[in-house]
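I am writing to request your help with a piece of structural work I have in hand. What I wish to show you is a protein chain and, alongside it, a tokenised description of its three-dimensional fold. Could you please explain, in whatever detail you think fit, how the structure tokens follow from the sequence? You will find the record immediately after this paragraph.
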Amino acid sequence: MHAAREQLRQRADYTYKFNAGTGRHGWLRLTPAYSVKIVEEIVTRYGASLNILDPFCGTGTTALSAVNHGHDAATTDINPFLIWLARAKTAHYAPASIGGASRAGAAALDLALQEAVVPAAEPPIHKIERWWPAGARRFLCHLKAAISDTAGSSSEVADLLKIAFCRSVIRLSNAAFNHQSMSFKDDSQGAFDLGPEAGAGFLEDLRHVLAGAAQNPAGNAVVTLGDARDLPACIGKKFDVVVTSPPYANRMSYIRELRPYMYWLDYLANGRDAAELDWLAIGGTWGVATSRLAGWSPSGEQWLPDDLPSVLSDIAHGDNANGALLSNYVAKYCEDMSAHFASLRHVLNPGARIHYIVGNSTFYGVLVPTEQIYAGMLREYGFTDIDVRPIRKRNSKKELIEFDVSAAWPGMGAPA
């Protein structure tokens, strides 16, 4: 294993960068999204049409890859915005809907540029001026209202226009993606020109979306709102293959990364809503979730590795600022994932194969071996043929690795 790690590379093609030019996979960017190339390499191992599950939907990467190869897919998430996006990415679009979206988008842009529509209100995102210059905000408010007016009653047309709108939201923003987490460029973008350049940008965004929409998948996807810690409650069938990338134990808030889309599309009304959703997620603490984490303690209801307490103790060492808080975070992450694996058994067919793409992490120099924690949980819950395969280096820190943790569910049916 050590020798294999030494030969690993960072591999940009195993990150979101590969997705950008890959049809519908490149519609919207989520900074920590995993690469469709990894998914494709796994999915294409299974030739016959199968039922494939992704219990951590994200932007729908696994579901879209699965249906593109003729499989049937199901995926779930607690975030309603991601549910909407995955449904839009895996939908079958009729030519009439694509043509209707093209015409409605051009009409909406004309209304927005002429400011011939009552503008939508600016989203209540904190320090919005840091995100978009005033002229860009004015244009986006008019464009959002115009899209609502021109989309008509077709949900397909509306979805395609909203995805193009989201692309413009990010393109016109100060958001930068040169780090693991979304950051900001300099605030000084200069004056915003409400003219041909703004219009050309939106039309290009729309053309990109419609080109992907024309490539309909061969299979079908079911996308449901639900909690991966209780899969039987949200998924009513069993699966042959699981391919997923759950949140990493790195305290990254996925809600934080999605704020611009979620505020502009009215999935968030205030920071409290964002923090409440973040608290429900596996991994990531932000806002009120952080204060709740400080008073959290393990339930004792889930199996946890015997060596986890020593890792938690090292993180919580008194010399580490916020060490106790981060120790609680890792403990909660592990408890949540243990509940997920216990739940997973009930939705698998005998002989099912699972693949979890996950990275390890460090806190104050203390390594959290997430891949080994997963392997231990899988072993405890009755999975067999467990394999931990390093895939790539995640950044310049040699100890940070991304893995494919795979296993099989034996042919004995679901546990009692």
Summary: The first helix runs from residue 2 to 6.
